[in-house]
Amino acid sequence: DGGITQSPKYLFRKEGQNVTLSCEQNLNHDAMYWYRQDPGQGLRLIYYSQIVNDFQKGDIAEGYSVSREKKESFPLTVTSAQKNPTAFYLCASSIGSGRNEQFFGPGTRLTVL
Amino acid sequence: GQSLEQPSEVTAVEGAIVQINCTYQTSGFYGLSWYQQHDGGAPTFLSYNALDGLEETGRFSSFLSRSDSYGYLLLQELQMKDSASYFCAVRGGTGGFKTIFGAGTRLFVKA
């Protein structure tokens, strides 16, 4: 089955530790995205990638880093520089053309203690 | 930059019609999308407008007026399962890859 997966579903970390969230897709999509969602809020764009080995900052990139070494994978690292990292993180992918429908993974709920 | 405004909450009864409005500001507009998200779940795509006019997909329709920077999502024959959050999202930036979401409209459907 084609889809987009994120792991783990729940993640707990101590303050000051870096943590990497996984995102994999087998939809053969060129574009991938990372969003952050806080309770009762909309999705805020962290980073996006149009193609392998290329990515751009979204509106809230500070304290985050990404890589796009493979078409299928777009991991997000939440660094210790991110002041308020506890949130729901959603990864998405899209063809990158036409209506550019984004397909979302199930999300990772990160709690920093 | 890009920004969107939509109502925070809407309440309607089962079987009714509800309209969720969205106004936006963006540079390099490529299109307006709508997504649905149930509590604890991931957003799912509903509709997309790149040109002015109405797009119909079953019980859901979406409208766009580019000159007014305005769109709406119309939900007909409301069902209890339509209770969810609805987000408008605008594509902009270079190549239209940068997608910015509104804060979402929480729809409550009552029996």
Structure in words:
- The complex is a heterodimer of chains A (113) and B (111).
- Helices cover 0% and strands 50% of the residues of chain A.
- Chain A has 113 residues and is an all-beta fold.
- In chain A, a hairpin with a 5-residue loop joins strand 4 and strand 5 (43-51).
- Chain A contains no helices and eleven strands.
- The radius of gyration of chain A is 13 Å and the shape is globular.
- Chain A starts with a strand and ends with a strand.
- In chain B, 0% of the residues lie in helices and 59% in strands.
- Chain B has strands at residues 3-5, 9-13, 18-25, 31-37, 44-49, 53-57, 60-65, 70-75, 84-92, 98-101, 105-110.
- In chain B, strands 2, 4, 5, 9, 10 and 11 form a six-stranded mixed sheet that branches. In chain B, strands 1-3-8-7-6 form a five-stranded antiparallel sheet, with no helix packed on it.
- The N and C termini of chain B lie far apart (41 Å).
- The A-B interface holds A 31, 33, 35, 41-45, 48, 50, 56, 58-59, 90, 96, 99-107 and B 30-31, 33, 35, 41-45, 48, 50, 87, 89, 91, 95-104.
Summarize the structure.
The complex is a heterodimer of chains A (113) and B (111). With 113 residues, chain A is mainly β. Chain A has strands spanning 4-7, 10-13, 19-25, 31-37, 43-51, 54-57, 64-66, 76-78, 87-94, 103-104, 108-112.
